[in-house]
Every structure is written in C-alpha cells, then in structure tokens.
Amino acid sequence: MIEMHDVWKVYSNGVEALRGIDLRVDQGEFVYIVGPSGSGKSTLIKLMYREEVPTHGIVLINGINVKRVRDWKIPHVRRKIGVVFQDYKLLPNLTAFENVAFAMEAVEAPRRKIRTRVEEVLELVGLTERMHALPSQLSGGEQQRVSIARAIVNNPTFIIADEPTGNLDPENSWDIMYLLEEINIRGTTVVMATHNKDIVNTMRQRVIAIEQGVIVRDELGGEYGYED
To answer: What topology in the membrane does the UniProt record assign (predicted)?
Structure first.
C-alpha cells in the first residue's frame, strides 16, 4: 500500500522536515501518525498522496514510485487514494451530493453509476436527508461527513486523513472516528495524523510517532504518548 525507504525531505529554505524515514503500511491497517507540532507529520502525510516528493529516498504508493510520476499522471495515481482534510475543502457552491459526485466526474465515471454510488456513500455517512444542502447550511460535523463520502466514493485502497477532527467538538469527533473505523472494518486502509490524545488512547491502533523528522516509535495498540 505505502512504502518509504530512507526518505528525506529538505525544503528550499534548508529545513530538514524528514530524515531517513522507513515505514510500510499494509492493506487493512489503521495507523495514527502522532508527534509534536513541527515534527514532520504533515510532510509525511503529504508524501503519501504525492502533494510532496522526497528529496532523497523512495516512496511507493500502491507499488508506484511517486518521484518518477510525471505531473500529468498525478491524478491517475490519486484515483485510489481518498484524502480527508481538517478544513473539509468542499466546493461552496455545490450541494453535498454535487461535492461527492464531482469526485466521480473527475475520474470520468459513467453517469449512470454516479447517482447510485453517491447516494450509497451519503447513506453510509448518515447524510441522506441533507444531500441537497450547501456546505454553508451544514454543521462542521456534517461537512466532514461529506468530505469522507467524497474520499471513499471512488473505492480507494486507502484513506489519508490529516487532522480530520481538528475543527470538531468531542461529540462530532467521535462520530467521525466511528465512521472511519467502520470504513476500515470494510477493508479500506486508514492513515490519520492527529493531536487527539483521547481518540488514540481509546481506539488503540498502530501508532507511529515522529519527532524532529525521525520515527521514534512504531507500535501496535499504541498510545498517544505526549502531554496535552
């Protein structure tokens, strides 16, 4: 699914965001990426969906070396990756249904399949009755559910979630986590960067901790391991 071998990322200002990263995420795993602010979590996540490329080393996504992918082929690589952001990134002038359908239109899915599939995933995330609402008419939790529906509508092999509960209250945060857990149980790999200590400590999945660009801990059933 995702492999990194001796990965370094050095930005143009000389900052070493990642140093010698080696990791592998297999099909069906649920993985938390944790660490202090500025530790390299966001850079690590961005490498996983080819928003960034390594300065040195190899990143394989579904067996594809992302550093060798030409820009025009990036959308093809991302077809099997679902991404969920902290700030939702919904198109404000499109309804919930249209935001999710847009992801299928972008990969040129047959029109006859779009309505059926979009309705299916909106039902999964509990938004059947809100499918015609604009983002401005939805709560933060509902907007994140639309974002998740959009991420899974094309049946990705894995989902990258970057602080998906960061803007949500505790109740909505847990609703989102139970939804991601259900998606994972159905077979989709989930990799999630988070600062939410309670969620990590309660759900007890694989935890990869990163500090100053280096993986310092990788354990199954791990804890968050940092003070608030």
So the answer is: Peripheral membrane protein
Cβ neighbours of 206 (radius 10 Å): 17
CA dist., res. 15 & res. 42, Å (int): 14
In the sheet that holds 2-10, the strands lie side by side as 16-25, 2-10, 56-61, 64-65
Question: Does the pLDDT value for residue 227 go beyond 80?
Answer: no
Q: What is the pLDDT of residue 219?
A: 96
Residue-wise pLDDT for 59-97, tens only, equals 999 899 988 988 888 888 888 899 999 899 999 999 999
**How far apart are the C-alpha atoms of 8 and 212, rounded to whole Å?**
12
Answer yes or no: is pLDDT of 228 > 80: no
Closest CA to 197 of 165, 219, 161, 172: 165
Spans of all domains in the chain = 25-41+72-220
Give tens-digit pLDDT for 4-13.
999 999 999 9
Q: Distance (Å, rounded) from C-alpha 53 to C-alpha 66?
A: 7
- The residues, any chain, with a CB within 8 Å of residue 94's CB and separated by 6 or more, are 102, 134, 135
Check if CATH label 3.40.50.300 holds for domain 25-41+72-220: yes
Per the structure block, which two tokens stand in for 40?
């390299």
Residue 215 near residue 23 (C-beta atoms within 8 A): yes
- 211: Cα within 13 Å, side-chain hemisphere: 7
| 104, 114 Cβ separation under 8 angstroms | yes
